[in-house]
Amino acid sequence: MRWLKSVWTILGCIAAGIWLGLYEPELSLKLVPYGNLYLSFLKMCVIPIMVTAIVSSVGRLFMSNGSTSLLVRMILVFISSMFMVSALGIAVGLLAKPGASISAGNKAVLGTILLDNETGGYSGVGAGDTDSGSNGLMDFIFNLIPENIFIALGQGNSLQILFFSVVMGSALGFLSARSGDHQFLSIVDLLFKMFQKVISWSMYILPFGLLFIIAGQIAGTGVELMLAMFKFTGLIHVVALAMMAASGILISVKSKLSFSESLRGLKESLTIAFGTQNSIATMPSVLDALRNRFKLDTDSVNLVVPLGIVICRYSMVMIYSLGLIFIAQLYEVHLGLQELIVIWVGSVLTAIAGAGTPGIVAISMISLVAIPLQLPYSTGVILLMAVNSLINPIVTVSNIHINSAAAMLIVEKEGAGT
User: Which residue ranges does UniProt annotate as crossing the membrane (predicted)?
Assistant: First the structure.
């Protein structure tokens, strides 16, 4: 059965999914529920893994001497890397001008998409969503604490689950440190390993899950839209690959492995990210790779990776910064230095404020930055949502790769001390 986990089997199923989406769209759309079923199974196991990993790692940090330095490194790396991604998105947008010089034919296609939205093509997007993120960081703070943790678990609200896990881990660590009894931490570790085993079983049907998901995504997009937004989506891919190259070099240097070896170490994680287009679903694989293949400290990785994946959404920072430049160019709005600084800082803050929200909802939060700049953001939101299935695979892959590189910078190797 090992052939089911082979990279060639996975790539073959991805290629088959793309072919089905392009040439058999009706069949592909019928396969969507099966892909969603597999994704739901992954999410079912991922949330317990995230909870147990954070509770265990935070608890053990209370009994270690290097927790302060770890937290300082984590804050510095997360913040600086997000601002670097935002600056890269702005620079590429200004140089390549994705929103300028769009042909009349492509504008007609985009106009049709906007018209479809007004008649219900993208229901729930548009004027009614102008306040979707109007309170910004205050909403982020108010939504951080769940009124009912069981509702948060049922809804898969990763941000609230993360906060709950940190609080529980702190309490467990405090009690364990005072009593000297690690029995409860051992039970949490056992639960973590149990759900990891279930995830490892699910990898045998990963190729088929990817086939169903990708076929449905391609069929739901349409060739005309792909061509009309080719320059913008192409630039997203270029920026994502450039960031992956930089993070790949960093991982290679830190791990003292060749670039190709470091990439192979994250092969499973990146494949899951590409197919599922869900960063949370890759968490078990990333944790396993960083602990067992790159030999990073287990407790630190179990804390840094979930926090990074939930809060540091590099993919959304890239989409916000480049997307805002695209909207401004599409409507021929001049952006001065002050406006560019607003985009640079606003893209990072908005991505943090949108932590835990689904990708589609997070895209609509671009209004937080667009409104102060007086940009007609509703059109941009519609277009970004329309091409989301085209850019989501690569931005999810880059998000996971950059988060892995950030973890390499923050966490010491096993036994090196923190």
Answer: 7-25, 37-58, 70-96, 159-177, 198-220, 232-253, 303-328, 340-371, 377-395
